[in-house]
Design brief:
CATH superfamily of the largest domain: Glycogen Phosphorylase B
CATH topology of the largest domain: Rossmann fold
CATH architecture of the largest domain: 3-Layer(aba) Sandwich
Bound molecules: adenosine-5'-diphosphate, alpha-D-glucopyranose
Helix content: 25-40%
Strand content: 15-25%
Number of domains: 2
Oligomer: single chain
Length: about 500
Amino acid sequence: MRIVFVASEGVPFSKTGGLADVVGALPKALAEMGQPVEVILPRYRMTKPGSVLPHLQSLTIPLASGFRFAAIQDGGESKGVRTIFVNLPEFFDRDGLYQEKGEDYPDNAARFAAFSMAAIELIKRTGEAPDIIHCHDWQSALVPIYLRHLYSSDPFFAKTSVLLTVHNLGYQGLFPPHILPQISLDAGLFTIEGLEFYGKVNLLKGGLIFSDFINTVSRKYAEEIQTEEFGCGLDGVLRARAARLAGILNGVDYEAWDPQTDKLIPANYSPSELRGKLTCKVVLLEKMGADSISLDRPLIGIVSRFAAQKGFDLIADIAESLMAMEVYVVALGTGEPQYEELFRSLAAKFPRKFFVKVAYDNALAHQIEAGADIFLMPSRYEPCGLNQIYSLKYGTVPVVRATGGLDDTIEPFDGKEGTGFKFDEYSPKALLACLREGTTVYQDQKAWRRLMLNGMQKDFSWVSSAKQYARIYQMLEKEKARPRATMAAGPSRG
Ligand code: ADP
Ligand code: GLC
């Protein structure tokens, strides 16, 4: 099959969060199974320039607001995955990917419309018709919308199916209605059956409606988003498409996240030789500026985008009680100014126990995974979450709220079995009780070691998730191969 990913970020070229980790790792896992994948990404300021493609150097993007001319660059091939960059400096040569200083770029609709259309035009000029275009989140949701509307009579795409993966329903690409003509879409799409959403244009909604299949990144989140509580206003659309919606848990790229081989941490360690983990803890505390280090205190680590989703208002509420406990906290993150301010003020108020770096720092993210005893993710909602899964491998015990992928990946410790601690109710009280439970078990060295080892032995590699994606691709391919009459009779009846 020809499979093309269209996404707005992917490691090692660009990243704001877990989407990039998935777009970096899933194609590799598919390629290892013998399925080559192409990945199309924007070329941002943070992306190292690629070389010129010999047969295709630039592309005209026929957007209604005016033609755009994208340079196309080859990001190289690695392990069966070819990456191609759409280089539109006026849109992507900026410090941020989607925003700066907590403010979305005002021209985001034009940026990702140009990118999505460039991806379609690029696909047309670089080979056979694809079987699958695999899109991710609102930034590439215009691909299925364009294919259904602007390219519906283009025979090149007649056998192409689109899978849309929703990594986070909280980000929908909402814009005023007047953008429709500017991004080459008919104003007739502004209806409740189309892209209209409470008076705005909702690109993710369009993607959900016009893709052949939808999935999200954990089984539990796939259920949650069909409810009013988690549906962010799109639960009705998702319920209507429930037969075409799956939940596939993200995997982990253990080439990047394994304490036995991680080059970014001060000492390597493994389940049979844990001593390096203590070195990582000491070096981390020293690096963050702790003066007198007391090793019998558990170190609670946080690495996160600072966003409302992540539940940090609960930490604000429990800060005094938490700091009365014998613990250290080391937090790394950037994002919404109010949370950056919260973490800075906690570090200033508790300078001997609470350490913060407000930045994006991949090396420090690895060092926190290795040096912490506990990893805290009190998320309000969490489609999958990757850091808690990385933590398991690093023997860093997750304390999480039982939501979405956090609930699917962490099993409560009962003294023998289990990998972490979970709380249900989104409340400061429940979080504090859960942290108390964790820090109490920490004092029992034997139990703690067992708990660490339980997590370290879990395998969340991409293999089984990649197989599930492959099954969806195959199912979609079979459906397209059927004669039209059968399709009309109902493609979802197997
Ligand atoms: P989300 O995608 O919602 O941000 P995930 O848990 O899926 O959450 O993935 C977050 C990814 O981004 C992880 O790889 C994590 O290490 C990384 N990350 C988040 N914030 C930072 C930061 N400030 N510095 C370095 N890495 C970060
Ligand atoms: C999103 C989600 C996160 C998920 C990631 C990768 O950003 O917030 O839970 O792990 O995408 O799928």
